[in-house]
Amino acid sequence: LEIPVTILNVNDNDPQFQQPNLTRFVREDTEVNAPVVAREDLSATDADLDIIYYELTTTVQGTDGYFAIRGVNNPEIYLQKALDYEKFQSTRLLLYARDRPVGSPDPTRTATATITIMITQTDTRAPWFLPCAFIHSDTSVCISSPYSGTINISEMAVEPLILRPGPIYAIDPDSTINEKIVYSIVGGNTDEVFSVDADTGNLTMNKIVTSPDSFLLQVMATQANNVRKYSVAAVEIKVINKSLYPPHFERELYNGTVVLGLAPRSFIFQAGDPSTPLMITAADEDFPDV
């Protein structure tokens, strides 16, 4: 007597990831839609020979939407949105492998793989002149104010010029790269009056100036390893007459009088002369008519 026996496959095996924990380093300038983790590194197997269905989630707040899988049956992870190292430097993804589609009434067995993504900073930003300020919450661009300073007419300054709001100084905002900055004057330097130190940014004079006309210099900060990464700042230098005398008060002591109950913004009068407002004045021999 022949008795055919059919063995029915029972769903009694969990899907298995070959590597349940993965770490990948991703460059900040990776192109959108580029693969980040290959399919063969993430495909799960099932001893029950079931079709595997995948789902990807992130566990780090603020990093949603950057990474995705190609499809419900294709676990290859790709970059879905451009990265910004300043926004986040790492994230952790969870990849679920199920042997039944989501919503299936049949019992489902699941495996989970953890993928850690580390963002590596790349040379994406031009130098920033300091001090600078961000526009609202955008940290990709830092706006600096023009530098300004003065020189005396017909006088040679031997020390680096003192500027406001501070000395000429730029940084590489890609902080982990921190490339060396080189300075140069690219405009406004009539008759080559000024020089800038390529390494320090110190501004010095090459010759005296006999005209009262101001200078508006354009100083460029360039990355030493990449001349295409540069920024330009304006430096206004005003030519003035040298001050030979300090200002001084015309008297060492001023005396005034007030009466009890005097209303705000009322004049204070000179002591001994209730009809003349008290005036405190100074003079400067550099400006005899002022």
From TrEMBL:
Residues covered by the Cadherin domain: 18-129, 145-249
InterPro entries named in the record: Cadherin, Cadherin-like_dom, Cadherin-like_sf
Superkingdom of origin: Eukaryota
Subcellular compartments: Membrane
Record keywords, A-Z: Calcium, Membrane, Repeat
GO biological process: adherens junction organization; calcium-dependent cell-cell adhesion via plasma membrane cell adhesion molecules; cell migration; cell morphogenesis; cell-cell adhesion mediated by cadherin; cell-cell junction assembly; homophilic cell adhesion via plasma membrane adhesion molecules
Keyword NAD listed: no
One Pfam family named in its UniProt record: Cadherin
Gene Ontology MF terms: beta-catenin binding; cadherin binding; calcium ion binding
Chief location: membrane
Gene Ontology CC entries for this record: adherens junction; catenin complex
Protein name: CDHR5 protein
